Amino acid sequence: MNFKHCIIFREVARVENFTKAANNLFITQSAVSHAIRELENEAETKLFERLHKSVKLTKTGELLLQEILPILENLENVESRIKNLECETPIHIASCITFAQIWLPQLIRKFQEISPNTKINVEVHSALKALKLLKQGKVDIAFIEGKIIQGALEIRKFSSYELCIVSSPSYCNTAELSLSQLLGMDLLLRERGSAVRETFESAVTLQGYKVHASWESVDSQSLIEATKNSLGVSILPKILVEQEIEKGNLLQIFIPDFKLFNDITVVINKNKYKSASLEKLCKLI
Q: What pTM does this model have?
């Protein structure tokens, strides 16, 4: 039993005539007869009653028609869409938290304008977890902040952001400190493994100091609120706290010769096939 035989069977059942079915399908009448004979041999029974100038389905033929109609409709639907399937293939994205908070929603909205049929699945994790998912092949593309070892990865830097030190004006009333003074305060930091934390700790370690956090969180907003409530000093992406600084809710603290930046990179497995949709997304980025 094959797809073509089922198409022929359906057409014969519809027009109740072998010759008409052959004409409608642009094949010979003998091809129609052969296909029906093959199906009847497989069913081990007659599927059509042969009348004088027409044919009519037997009860078994009616049952077979009921079985194959939804299958044929599904196959024909796939056949009509097969050339567009790659454009409809979902893209699985893993994103670090900072990128997801600030840039990812705008990027996805722009991508959907040029590729409206492509579904986007997003997972937001620490940079370390996002990179792990990419290496495991569970996502197609990852947006990572901080330093990455190349390996079998295709890495494209496309942006960066500044980290800044902030406090409430009531917790610290001076805009300039030494690094040792900063480290003596209550530090409200992102969790270990986050790019913000790793960048800060690496810079501190190079100066010969160690970091002791009073508060750790995976959520930058909770750190902002804790800082506003005078619970300590936080190190966060400047773009997340600029408005609070402008409003006077937070004070930016400067340390001489101590500036911190994180790169934003898009990362893809070099050896993994890139769908047409994924290529579009990469070009947009």
A: 0.62
- Provide the domain limits for residue 19: 3-83
Q: Residue 284, CB half-sphere, CA atoms under 13 Å: how many? A: 17
Whole-angstrom distance, CA of residue 204 vs CA of residue 58? 85
Q: Report the distance separating Cα 180 and Cα 27, nearest Å.
A: 88
- pLDDT tops 70 at residue 40: yes
Alpha-carbon distance 159 to 264, whole Å?
Answer: 5
Are 66 and 118 members of one domain? no
Same domain, 154 and 207: no
Residues 202 and 166 in one domain: yes
Shared-domain flag, residues 196 and 257: yes
pLDDT band at 85 (very low <50, low <70, confident <90, very high): low
Place of tokens 């059509």: 48
| Number of domain units in the chain | 3
Band of the pLDDT at 128, cuts 50, 70, 90?
Answer: confident
